[in-house]
Amino acid sequence: MNSKERVFRALRRKEGNPDRVPIQFDLCRQHTETFGKKLGIEPDYALSYYEDLTYRISANEIRTRMGSDVVVVGGTVPTGYRPVPVAGNVTMNEFGMHMKPTALYVEVVKCPLEDISTTCEVEQYRFPDAYASGRFDKAKRDIARFGKDYFTIGDVEISLFEMAWHLTGLEKYLIGMMQESTWVEALNDRVEQWSTGLAVQLVKAGVDAIWLGEDLGSQTSTLISPDEWRIRFKPRHKRMIEEIKKENPDIIIIMHSDGAVAPLIDDFIELGIEVYNPVQPNVDGSDPQELKDKYGARICFFGGIDQQLLLPSGDIPAIRSEIEKRIKILGKNKGYLLAPAHIIQTDVSADTIEEMIKAAKELGNY
Question: Which residue blocks in 248-306 are alpha helix, DSSP H?
Fold first, then answer.
């Protein structure tokens, strides 16, 4: 069977078992360059509107040649847009965020609404146009090229809470929430409109799934209380999913959140979310057996391979053992798409990446 069939069966959208547990992975720029040279493929970058998402939606040819069963597409900057130089290696993106590359990620070092205090300022802020010319040209090309044989995900991460606080700064945003500042919900409205526009266009372009979400947890708890999330954000996700399903009732909805967010999984299921990602190891509430026993009949799992400690260690026997364990538990009775819990960074060697893929394929047979 091809990769698309394999993922659809694994996620319980088609009858019968897949031949093996499907796999997906994302590569940082350095690894993209390394494997591009090894395979003789020029990396095909898609500059995202938010820089760290670039490597989710780039180099699909390289990743599929390496063994991924999935391609990921998303919105890019509009035709002709270039980030604006600020100073040194800092640039300003479409949102007015000042972005600085670090050893592992691109960080926001200045927020466009860091001094916000009124709803009027939200209304006056010039939000990027989700429908700008060229924003989905690369996505459409990749869907046309890979969509027949590979499961295609439309990426709309950083969809509500995280995008909003990146515009103001986390401290500013959380204080605004605590003080019930009116500008908070006005800003959330505009972020919801932006993300819904992106998602609907990706569904129209022909993706198999929409990947929503943001990082809602730390290593030990949610960043805001579950009740606060239910009041402020759950209704927004519900509206977004309803709009997405209007375009395609059969679209698969994936919810991403790093951190200890197990208290929200029942809510995800209630919203009609079918896949939970990244099932981050080493955080409270992420024991794979407990997750499978409690939620496995109602939601599928995507992720689960530790890259905080395990993958950077380069300990191949330990990596193989952990992959075998995840497959045995999370893959039982289907319901599992194996992946690292985040974009693979330079603290993981290229050899380790290849061994991870090899182990997933060798150990994942049904």
Answer: 265-270, 288-295
